[in-house]
């Protein structure tokens, strides 16, 4: 896996990062390799492997592929669209969409965030009104990953504001649906090869058969999707951290100052040890949660802790890698600054670090 990733997915990364360009060829290659369909049963075009195997493969992908944006796009597609579709979709919906999602022919994601609702996701304003055999959606979504290149999105909207979170439903919205408009592309500081956009729903028509799950079940569906996402989305970051650690050890051994390798200075050695400790903590959290999921256990707490541990450790690992590489680490060519920019996003998407702490503290009984 990591050999495929390093050979096939890294070409022209600097240029694509600068231009904010999605690697559609890489996307297709990953799909052909089977990545997009890892957790999807073979019946629907996937590989049907268990969560522990899935995160192991994604970790290798992150080790070999330096294009964190491409990997992020694949993750958004898997955890926010394929998994809820698999869990809550009708047989017809699964047969219609999953094979093309696994083959990479369709690109997807989800649209929950809005200009006025982020962490407080269930205060969304987008409405869905049933009219005969369709729903009419109205509202504005933002921060939609894969939005500019999407073919299919899960859009969350309320059918009854008076019911609060229990009025939220979710819909499979195809790009060509009347009234669905992809707005401006949002330029990000990191993960620049993963495109993001605003989405506008202007009397957007969605057939009733494209409602995902029952009416009012959007909160459950989103929670389910987020639990998977928080458990698995940063598996690739563990591979990235391993790569950053190895590069840092090599550099610390090779680079000489004051007549010796900088790795012999205890202050540098201790940074390397901290990187290793953080990597081990991240990997242990990842594997434990995936193992529990493979056993069918509920992992609300573990998912929040996994997301929190890996994202925070990834950022610090990238920071240490830059510091160990000195001036070279700060130069764009070295690619460590890109790793840092990419890592910072992980503290925000799928619920911020603060939100993970709030979830975890409440699940711990506070
Ligand atoms: C790279 C990236 C990809 C994304 N992809 C998607 C996507 O595909 N689909 C989608 O719907 N959304 C997506 N998002 C949006 C993401 O889910 C939101 O950015 C996130 O939920 C935070 O919401 P917000 O940005 O509105 O920040 P806010 O909720 O406004 O938070 C601002 C700050 O306040 C803090 N805060 C908020 N509430 C509390 C609280 N109760 N206690 C303590 N602190 C609090 C936050 O932690 C944060 O530090 C993406 C974001 C990023 C960065």
UniProtKB/TrEMBL annotation:
<dbReference type="GO" id="GO:0009083">
    <property type="term" value="P:branched-chain amino acid catabolic process"/>
</dbReference>
<dbReference type="InterPro" id="IPR013786">
    <property type="entry name" value="AcylCoA_DH/ox_N"/>
</dbReference>
<dbReference type="InterPro" id="IPR037069">
    <property type="entry name" value="AcylCoA_DH/ox_N_sf"/>
</dbReference>
<comment type="pathway">
    <text>Amino-acid degradation; L-valine degradation.</text>
</comment>
<keyword id="KW-0560">Oxidoreductase</keyword>
<dbReference type="GO" id="GO:0050660">
    <property type="term" value="F:flavin adenine dinucleotide binding"/>
</dbReference>
<dbReference type="InterPro" id="IPR006091">
    <property type="entry name" value="Acyl-CoA_Oxase/DH_mid-dom"/>
</dbReference>
<dbReference type="GO" id="GO:0003995">
    <property type="term" value="F:acyl-CoA dehydrogenase activity"/>
</dbReference>
<dbReference type="InterPro" id="IPR006089">
    <property type="entry name" value="Acyl-CoA_DH_CS"/>
</dbReference>
<keyword id="KW-0285">Flavoprotein</keyword>
<dbReference type="InterPro" id="IPR046373">
    <property type="entry name" value="Acyl-CoA_Oxase/DH_mid-dom_sf"/>
</dbReference>
<keyword id="KW-0274">FAD</keyword>
<feature type="domain" description="Acyl-CoA dehydrogenase/oxidase C-terminal">
    <location>
        <begin position="216"/>
        <end position="359"/>
    </location>
</feature>
<protein>
    <submittedName>
        <fullName>Acyl-CoA dehydrogenase</fullName>
    </submittedName>
</protein>
<dbReference type="Pfam" id="PF02770">
    <property type="entry name" value="Acyl-CoA_dh_M"/>
</dbReference>
<dbReference type="InterPro" id="IPR036250">
    <property type="entry name" value="AcylCo_DH-like_C"/>
</dbReference>
<dbReference type="InterPro" id="IPR009100">
    <property type="entry name" value="AcylCoA_DH/oxidase_NM_dom_sf"/>
</dbReference>
<dbReference type="Pfam" id="PF02771">
    <property type="entry name" value="Acyl-CoA_dh_N"/>
</dbReference>
<keyword id="KW-0101">Branched-chain amino acid catabolism</keyword>
<feature type="domain" description="Acyl-CoA oxidase/dehydrogenase middle">
    <location>
        <begin position="111"/>
        <end position="204"/>
    </location>
</feature>
<comment type="similarity">
    <text>Belongs to the acyl-CoA dehydrogenase family.</text>
</comment>
<feature type="domain" description="Acyl-CoA dehydrogenase/oxidase N-terminal">
    <location>
        <begin position="2"/>
        <end position="105"/>
    </location>
</feature>
<dbReference type="Pfam" id="PF00441">
    <property type="entry name" value="Acyl-CoA_dh_1"/>
</dbReference>
<dbReference type="InterPro" id="IPR009075">
    <property type="entry name" value="AcylCo_DH/oxidase_C"/>
</dbReference>
